């Protein structure tokens, strides 16, 4: 099948590469000439395990083409995925200008029946608006909602072996044709029995936001519980195990820490709240989730200030981890950014290390020091702060940590070490809710 992907951001690039790898000819379109040139030269703008290898393979096999020419791509393909960004506006609403702009361009280029698939994360009702835009020029198309459920750091695996696929198609004279097309596209990815759920576009759009909001809610609940544990003298790890063994609750997304970040959860929680508000409903729970997460990113600061009796001016801190989660270079909404900003405001200095994300962090904080390896950060530092749970940090040389830190203290925002072991080693150790 000939497929075009409009937008080569995280979702668009992963989608295009995986569809090409299953045998389709895929045209990936972007209006950024430098980006298209880089991709054609094998330079990948994001870090995602396995992505470059698949790009190189499918470009070599001429199944993956990068271009700026949207009109050419639309005319050459039967299925068009819209995968442009929907960044948050100041009030939290999703900015749909790119989505609607692409819809206008598609409408001007349609030369026969097309299935227009909305992969971008969009508020409920957006597909109907896109339908209206394109229908002004032609009615030889179908609108399909197909939200993505990709985890950064595991996106290839998530696309190729999905838990489920959500497809929204409204009833109409071409709805059966659109369903056949989507079944054919995803057939290679559901051979192990993963379900495809067909529904209306409104429900499909809302499913995406609801999924991310639910996961954000679970993380936030555990963070609130951990904060309570610190006051009540309980251990949040024991509680996590206790409630996670209940099959109705499950074990996933129950790990407390210093808040969630990234390009999805913060944006989608805010957007769903604003969408509910626009529909006349005050979604109080989502507002609370967003507020709790904002303050949770500062959780370690209170421990740091208490340990150093409120005076950290001039002190240097080692910081391990800059990305919002492991296996990605994405620092958007990362807790590390809040930690750095707060420490700098108190006059502290920072020596940071991250396996992947330092180049992105340097664009935001060029004034801090970046180390070539994790242990280099310890030299002349008063304490160690852990902001991302990279595997590199899980079993470090604790003797080296203890010998090199001026003050023998670790502030662990991801609870990756055992407090009992830290006590036995003789390291002052602060974590979340334990």
Structure report:
The protein is an alpha/beta fold and 434 residues long. It has 3 domains: 198 residues, NAD(P)-binding Rossmann-like Domain (Rossmann fold, 3-Layer(aba) Sandwich); 88 residues, Orthogonal Bundle (N-(1-d-carboxylethyl)-l-norvaline Dehydrogenase, domain 2); 132 residues, NAD(P)-binding Rossmann-like Domain (Rossmann fold, 3-Layer(aba) Sandwich), CATH 3.40.50. It has 17 helices and 14 strands. The strands form 2 sheets. The chain has an 8-stranded mixed β-sheet with strand order 3-2-1-4-5-6-7-8, sandwiched between helices. Strands 11-10-9-12-13-14 form a 6-stranded parallel β-sheet, sandwiched between helices. Strand 4, helix 5 and strand 5 form a beta-alpha-beta unit. Helix 1 crosses helix 3, helix 5 runs parallel beside helix 6 and helix 11 runs antiparallel to helix 12. The protein is elongated and about 70 Å long.
CATH superfamily of the largest domain: NAD(P)-binding Rossmann-like Domain
CA distance, first residue to last residue: 54 Å
User: Mind telling me the C-alpha Rg?
Assistant: 24 Å
Which CATH class of the largest domain is shown? Alpha Beta
Count every beta strand, where a strand is a DSSP E run of 2 or more residues: 14
Query: Number of DSSP helices?
Result: 17
Q: Which segments are poorly predicted (pLDDT under 50) over 5 or more consecutive residues?
A: none
Numbering strands along the chain, what is their spatial order in the largest sheet? 3-2-1-4-5-6-7-8
How would you characterize the largest beta sheet? Answer: 8 strands, mixed
- Which of globular, elongated, flat, extended, rod-shaped describes the shape? elongated
- Helix coverage percent of residues? 40-55%
This entry's quaternary arrangement is single chain
Mean pLDDT: 96
Question: Proportion of β residues?
Answer: 5-15%
Tally of distinct domains: 3
CATH names the topology of the largest domain as: Rossmann fold
């Amino acid at each position: 099948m000939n497929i075009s992907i409009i937008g080569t951001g995280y979702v668009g690039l992963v989608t295009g590469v995986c569809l090409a790898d299953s045998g389709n000819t895929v045209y990936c379109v972007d209006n950024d000439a430098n980006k298209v040139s880089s991709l054609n030269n094998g330079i990948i703008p994001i870090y995602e395990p396995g992505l470059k290898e698949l790009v190189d393979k499918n470009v070599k096999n001429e199944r993956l083409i990068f271009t700026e020419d949207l009109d050419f791509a639309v005319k050459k393909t039967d299925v068009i995925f819209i995968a442009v960004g929907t960044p948050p506006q100041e009030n939290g609403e999703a900015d749909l200008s790119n989505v609607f702009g692409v819809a206008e361009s598609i409408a001007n280029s349609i030369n026969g029946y097309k299935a227009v698939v909305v992969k971008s994360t969009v508020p409920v009702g957006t597909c109907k608006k896109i339908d209206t835009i394109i229908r002004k020029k032609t009615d030889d198309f179908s609108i399909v909602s197909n939200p993505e459920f990709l985890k950064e750091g595991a996106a290839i695996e998530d696309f190729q072996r999905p838990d489920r696929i959500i497809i929204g198609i409204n009833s109409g004279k071409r709805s059966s044709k659109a369903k056949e097309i989507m079944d054919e596209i995803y057939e290679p990815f559901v051979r192990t029995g993963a379900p495809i759920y067909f529904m209306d576009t409104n429900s499909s759009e809302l499913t995406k936001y609801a999924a991310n909001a639910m996961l954000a809610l679970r993380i936030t609940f555990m963070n609130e519980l951990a904060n309570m544990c610190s006051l009540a003298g309980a251990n949040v790890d024991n509680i996590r195990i206790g409630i996670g063994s209940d099959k109705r609750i499950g074990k996933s997304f129950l790990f407390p820490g210093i808040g969630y970040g990234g390009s999805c959860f913060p944006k989608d929680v805010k957007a769903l709240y604003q969408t509910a508000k626009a529909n006349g409903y005050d979604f109080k729970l989502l507002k609370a989730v967003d507020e709790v997460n904002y303050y949770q990113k500062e959780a370690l600061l209170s421990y740091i200030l208490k340990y150093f009796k409120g005076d950290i001016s001039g002190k240097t801190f080692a910081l391990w981890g800059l990305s919002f989660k492991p296996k990605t270079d994405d620092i958007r909404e990362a807790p590390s950014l809040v930690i750095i900003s707060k420490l700098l405001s108190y006059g502290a200095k920072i020596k940071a290390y991250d396996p992947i994300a330092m180049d992105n962090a340097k664009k935001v904080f060029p004034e801090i020091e970046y180390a070539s390896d994790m242990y280099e950060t310890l030299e002349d530092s008063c304490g160690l702060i852990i902001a991302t749970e990279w595997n590199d940090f899980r079993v470090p040389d604790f003797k080296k940590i203890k010998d090199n830190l001026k003050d023998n203290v670790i502030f662990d925002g991801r609870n990756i070490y055992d407090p009992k072991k830290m006590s036995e080693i003789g390291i002052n150790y602060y974590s979340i809710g334990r």
